[in-house]
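Minutes, project check-in
Item: structure for the 345-residue chain
Input as provided by the requester:
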Amino acid sequence: MRVLVTGNRGYLGSVLSDVLRARGHSVTGWDAGYFDPVGRGAAMRDIRDIRPEDLLGFDAVVHLAALCNDACGALDAGATHEINGRAAGNLARVARSTGVERLVLASSCSIYGAAAADGLDENAAVNPLTAYARSKVDAEAAIRSLSGGTFCPTALRFATLYGLSSSFRSDLLVNRMVSCAWRWDTVSVHGEGRAARPLLHVRDAAAAIAECLAADGATVQGKAFNVGREGENYEVREVAELVRQQRPTAQVRAVGTNDDRRSYRVRFDAFRQAFPEWRPSMTVPVGITELEDALDAVQVDGKHEWRDGWGRSDRSLWLQRLCSEGTVSQSFRWTPAEAARGVRV
């Protein structure tokens, strides 16, 4: 299968590209390059500018390109809607018009927002509390409206990811706690730490996408699936304790209050039943050990940038830096001088 992966140089995209190639797929990437190491020199391509000729000959598109979390979405709600929502709908329309048969959208369990009930399935009401979450709801609706005929769009609502990637993110719950414990022997928990999150290793997320691409159309067409591991819904304080157990010298510290209302526990029965061959290989405790070992062995991408913060591993802070330097505009377009470094933006 010839697959276009948008956001291929990001956290999940880097892992996914390797997984798909290992399964025999031909993979082409499309990435804005915000978080590339300096000097990488790859093409910078904005998902807002995709054209029909860009999709000719592809069998499938995996759409990962987006402002990737609530903090990034809060930088500019309008740009978040444009990049995450409107551009996803346009991509789906172009894909359908050019004969692409599969489109897999990376959505998020964050669309459930603050949920009183436990065990949310795909029929639960969504309650998006942030610009990022609202943009994912919009993206899902846009691609679902185009489902039909040979065009099979699917939304995968991922749990919060963690784990190693060649484009590491330190702004994810488990990754940040492990990194803080490794750097300072301290793990900070805001308020009582009772907010709940489902968690999933990035390699297992990549494997889920690969399974979705291989499925028959009737299984995936127009569907949305929660994707995570059963038994891996955790309160924030529970994750902090797991990190402390792995690094006994670390102290867990309560910091102020928690103004974040998001809290949700999610069920994953539908995806497990549709894809019985998909078996997550990692658990949070094992993933914590993996991260600790990688940090000790200097195997974490971009770690050399952490002297004065988190470098590009914290996506929101890095985008703010690019904006303040005038490298990208407030709508997250590369400035002309920077755009000239890429093949096309």
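Outcome recorded: The CA atoms of residues 16 and 206 lie 5 Å apart.
No further action items on this chain.
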